[in-house]
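[recover] target loaded
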C-alpha cells in the first residue's frame, strides 16, 4: 500500500487529537482557574533500521515516510484575570502558585479558588475535596472553619470572627516540572515537586478567570478542522486510486 495513505492517516489522527484539545479549551472558556492546553507535533520517520543500513533512506523515501504525529500537550501557564465575586469564600491567586487539594487520587493542584464549607466544617472545593493548609502550620489534613464571618488575608491566613482558623496552602513548581491536566482545573505533578510559595498573594472575594482566549481558540479550532478535512480528502483520493489499480492494473497481471 502507498506510504502516502499511511501519512494521510497519521496526519488525520494527529489533527483529530488536536481537535479534541481545542474543543476542550473552548468548552472551559468560562471555567474559573482553567489553564488551556497547547499541542506539540513531531515528525515520525517510518523507515526501519535495515533500510537505513542499506542506504534506502534517500530524500524521496524520507519525504514519503515522514509522518506527522501529536507529540503531546502542555499547559499554558499565562495568568487569567481576577474577577470580583463578593463571595467571602472565593479566593483568587494574584501572583504565582496553586492551591493544594486532597482528592481521592491523591494531592492535586488548581487555580480555581471557588471554595465552600462542608457539613463537617472543613474548607473544601465545589467538588467536596479538602483544601490543604499551610506547610508550616501542619494543616495538611485540611482547614476547619467554624461558623462566623470569614476573612482571608492576602497571605492566605483565614480568620473567623477575628480568630485565626488556619492558612490556605499555596505551592509552586520549579521550571520544567511536568504538570499534567486531569480535566477541568485539576493538575497533577510529580510527587515531592511542590514547594511552598514564600510570599503568597491572594485576594478574597475574587476568582481567576480562564486563560483561554476565545478569538484565538476559535481560529485554532477552525484551522485544525480544515487540516483534518484535507487529510480526509487525501485518504479518499488514495483509496480511489487503490481501487482503480485493483480493478484495472491487477487484472492484466
Amino acid at each position: 500500500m502507498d506510504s502516502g495513505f499511511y501519512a494521510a492517516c497519521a496526519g488525520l489522527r494527529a489533527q483529530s487529537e488536536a481537535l479534541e484539545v481545542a474543543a476542550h479549551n473552548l468548552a472551559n472558556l468560562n471555567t474559573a482557574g482553567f489553564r488551556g492546553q497547547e499541542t506539540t507535533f513531531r515528525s515520525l520517520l517510518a523507515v526501519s533500521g535495515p533500510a537505513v543500513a542499506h542506504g534506502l533512506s534517500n530524500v524521496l523515501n524520507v519525504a514519503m515516510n515522514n509522518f506527522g504525529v501529536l507529540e503531546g500537550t502542555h499547559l499554558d501557564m499565562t495568568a487569567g484575570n481576577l474577577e470580583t465575586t463578593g463571595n467571602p469564600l472565593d479566593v483568587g491567586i494574584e501572583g504565582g502558585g496553586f492551591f493544594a487539594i486532597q482528592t481521592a487520587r491523591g494531592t492535586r493542584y488548581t487555580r480555581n479558588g471557588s471554595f465552600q464549607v462542608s457539613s463537617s466544617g472543613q474548607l473544601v472545593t465545589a467538588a467536596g475535596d479538602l483544601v490543604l493548609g499551610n506547610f508550616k502550620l501542619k494543616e495538611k489534613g485540611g482547614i476547619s472553619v467554624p461558623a462566623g464571618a470569614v476573612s482571608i488575608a492576602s497571605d492566605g491566613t483565614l480568620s473567623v470572627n477575628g480568630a485565626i482558623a488556619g492558612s490556605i496552602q499555596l505551592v509552586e513548581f520549579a521550571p520544567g516540572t511536568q504538570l499534567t491536566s486531569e480535566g477541568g482545573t485539576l493538575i497533577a505533578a510529580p510527587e515531592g515537586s511542590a514547594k511552598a510559595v514564600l510570599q503568597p498573594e491572594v485576594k478574597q472575594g475574587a476568582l481567576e478567570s480562564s486563560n483561554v482566549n476565545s478569538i484565538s481558540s476559535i481560529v485554532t479550532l477552525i484551522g485544525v478542522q480544515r487540516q483534518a478535512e484535507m487529510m480526509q480528502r487525501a485518504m479518499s483520493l488514495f483509496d480511489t486510486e487503490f481501487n482503480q489499480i485493483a480493478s484495472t492494473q491487477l487484472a492484466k497481471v
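[recover] notes: The chain has four helices and 18 strands.
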